Amino acid sequence: MSIKLKHMLVVVFIIFTVSIVGNFAKASFASTRPQSSLKSEKVAKSKTVNNKKTSSETVATTNKPYPNLVQYPQAWILVSLKHQRVYIMNGKQRLYTMLASTGMHDSTPTGTFHVEAERGTYFYAPKFNEGAYDWVSWKDHGVYLFHSTPTDEQKHILPGPEADLGKRPSSHGCVHLSIPDARWVYETIPTGTTVKIVRS
């Protein structure tokens, strides 16, 4: 057998041995790894999508599905400042209830308004050091909005305002909603929909 062939066989044997030992060590490490760390990694991976919290992390408004507005072409929105709720209405029938947080110091105007054409998936307001997902204008063309609870500059949901949903006013005049509720309003509520904001 030539020296070149012997060297080649030795190299192949070494590569083969290293790959078997490496795979064995990897399998051994995986089997001895605590299940809790695997579970926490899976949870961490599932919790954010593009830095945006998923619906499982936000305040659960109700367990019922959102209404199909094709069946309710006259649907309108009622915002209760007293109860910190947004109601999707059909006439006097309440179709859906959302937890909300309205403006501090009576900064959310009351009255009858209409959903305006302006809407978007994200904004950031340096003046307030806050941004939000899924916004829909209902007064003054981009000034007063429905939108998600606020985010920081890196688009992470701020825990304080999120905890205020359904409990107390914490906005600068807009109507804060949970991530899934804001997304539904953004995707579903048509321009021109009536919005009534009342103190009671």
Write the layout of secondary structure elements.
Blueprint: H1 3-32, H2 35-47, E1 48-49, E2 52-53, E3 76-80, E4 85-90, E5 93-101, E6 111-114, E7 119-125, E8 130-139, E9 144-148, H3 159-164, E10 175-177, H4 179-188, E11 194-198
Parallel strand pairs: 3-11, 9-10
Antiparallel strand pairs: 1-2, 3-4, 4-5, 5-10, 6-11, 7-8, 8-9
CATH class of the largest domain: Mainly Beta
Distance between the termini: 96 Å
β-strand percent reads 25-35%
| Total discrete domains | 2
Q: Note the total helix count.
A: 4
Characterize the largest beta sheet: strand count, sense, and whether it forms a barrel: 9 strands, mixed
Uncertain stretches: 23-60
Give the neighbour order of strands across the main sheet: 6-11-3-4-5-10-9-8-7
Q: Please name the CATH topology of the largest domain.
A: L,D-transpeptidase catalytic domain-like
Name the quaternary structure: single chain
GO molecular function: peptidoglycan L,D-transpeptidase activity; transferase activity
Domain L,D-TPase catalytic: 75-198
Active site: 147 (proton donor/acceptor), 174 (nucleophile)
Protein name: L,D-transpeptidase family protein
